[in-house]
Design brief:
Layout (H helix, E strand, L loop, with lengths): L2 H4 L9 H12 L6 H16 L6 H15 L3 E2 L12 H7 L1 E2 L1 H14 L3 E7 L2 E8 L2 E6 L5 E3 L1 H12 L12 H18 L3 H14 L4 H13 L3 H14 L3 H18 L1
Parallel strand pairs: 1-2
Antiparallel strand pairs: 3-4, 4-5, 5-6
Helix pairs in contact: 3-6, 4-6, 8-9, 9-10, 10-11, 11-12
Length: about 260
C-alpha cells in the first residue's frame, strides 16, 4: 500500500496495520515489515484457535495477554519522544511505542478476529475499549495492556488536559488514528524548529485525510515559512474546497489575498 492510496479509501476499508507500515516506510524505506505482519497474523490465529471469550473483559484480557504478555509490547516511557515509537515496524522490533501506536495493534488485532474494538481519544493519551456480550472493557496499551476503570480513564484525561472532562470518550476513526500517529512527530519537529520536517509530515497527513481542513491550514502555514508560497496557495485552495464553515472560508480567502499581495 502506498500512502497516497489511503486518501481514496473509505475509512472502514483502511487496514490499520498496512497503513501504519506505509507511514513507517516513508522515513525508513528499507524497513522490513515481515515480522510485524507475522506477529499480527500469528496472534489472530491463536485467538481463533482457542475458545473465544464472549465478554468484553475476557476479550480485553486475551488481547493484552498476547500483545503485552507474550510479546512484551508496552509503553516507551524512557524515550517517549523517539520517532521510532511512532513507527509500528520499529515498535514490534523494540518492544515499546507510543499509546497511539500500541492502540493500533490492539484495535487491528481485535477487528481481525471479528471483535468490536475502538481507540478512544483522551487528552495526551489513547486507550482501547473492547466490547462483547453485555460489557465493555478499557485497556491502557501504554501500561502493559492493563485493564482500567472508567474512573481511572477520567483521571488520565484530567492529567493530560488539566481541565474537567466528560465521562464519555470519543472513539477515533481509522484516519484519525493514523493522523494522530503522525501528529506526535510533527509536534516535536515544530518544537525543535525543524520546519521542513514538520512540513513533510503534514504533507503525509493531508494525503491520508484530504478532507480534514485543519491539516491544510497548518500545511499552508509551514509552506509559507519555508518560502513555498505557490504550494501554500494550493493548500489553502484545497482547504477552501473542503470546508463548510463560512467564517473559515472567509479566513482562507483573506489568507489567499495576503499571499497574492506578497507576491506582487
Amino acid at each position: 500500500m502506498e500512502l497516497n492510496e489511503l486518501g481514496l479509501l473509505d475509512d472502514t476499508d483502511i487496514d490499520l496495520v498496512e497503513a501504519s507500515i506505509a507511514i513507517a516506510r516513508c522515513d525508513r524505506p528499507e524497513a522490513d515489515p515481515a515480522r510485524l505482519r507475522r506477529m499480527v497474523s500469528g496472534w489472530a490465529i491463536a485467538l481463533q484457535r482457542d475458545t473465544q471469550p464472549v465478554s468484553g473483559s475476557g476479550r480485553a484480557r486475551r488481547l493484552s495477554g498476547l500483545i503485552a504478555g507474550e510479546a512484551g509490547l508496552t509503553g516507551a516511557s524512557e524515550d517517549y519522544d523517539n520517532p521510532l515509537n511512532a513507527d509500528l515496524i520499529a515498535v514490534v522490533e523494540r518492544g515499546r511505542g507510543l499509546p497511539v501506536a500500541l492502540s493500533i495493534l490492539y484495535v487491528a488485532l481485535a477487528r481481525r478476529v471479528g471483535w468490536a474494538a475502538e481507540a478512544l481519544n483522551l487528552p495526551g493519551h489513547v486507550i482501547v475499549e473492547v466490547t462483547g456480550g453485555v460489557d465493555a472493557a478499557l485497556i491502557d496499551p501504554f501500561d502493559h495492556g492493563m485493564g482500567i476503570s472508567r474512573e481511572r480513564a477520567m483521571e488520565i484525561a484530567r492529567h493530560g488536559g488539566g481541565e474537567p472532562v466528560s465521562a464519555r470518550f470519543e472513539p477515533m476513526t481509522n484516519r484519525q488514528l493514523l493522523v494522530r500517529l503522525i501528529t506526535n512527530q510533527a509536534s516535536r519537529a515544530r518544537s525543535s524548529g525543524d520546519t521542513k520536517r514538520a512540513l513533510r509530515l503534514y504533507e503525509r497527513m493531508t494525503m491520508i485525510a484530504p478532507r480534514l481542513s485543519t491539516l491544510w491550514w497548518e500545511r499552508a502555514r509551514l509552506e509559507q515559512l519555508v518560502g513555498a508560497n505557490k504550494a501554500a496557495r494550493a493548500s489553502l485552495t484545497a482547504m477552501l474546497e473542503t470546508t463548510h464553515d463560512t467564517a473559515m472560508a472567509r479566513r482562507i480567502q483573506a489568507a489567499l489575498a495576503a499571499l497574492a499581495r506578497s507576491d506582487s
